[in-house]
Amino acid sequence: MDARSIIAGLRAGRTPGAAELGWFAAGLANGEVSDAQAGA
C-alpha cells in the first residue's frame, strides 16, 4: 500500500477499506505518510 493510491481512490469516489485506513493512520503516526498527504 502507498498513500498515493489511497488518495487517488478517495478522489475517484472509492471508500477505503479497514486495512487501508489502518495503514494510513499508522503511516501518519510513524512519519511514512506526510502531513501534506493527509491533508489531500
From TrEMBL:
UniProt keyword list: Glycosyltransferase, Transferase
The species this protein was found in: Cereibacter changlensis
UniProt-recorded Gene Ontology molecular function terms: glycosyltransferase activity
Name of protein: Uncharacterized protein
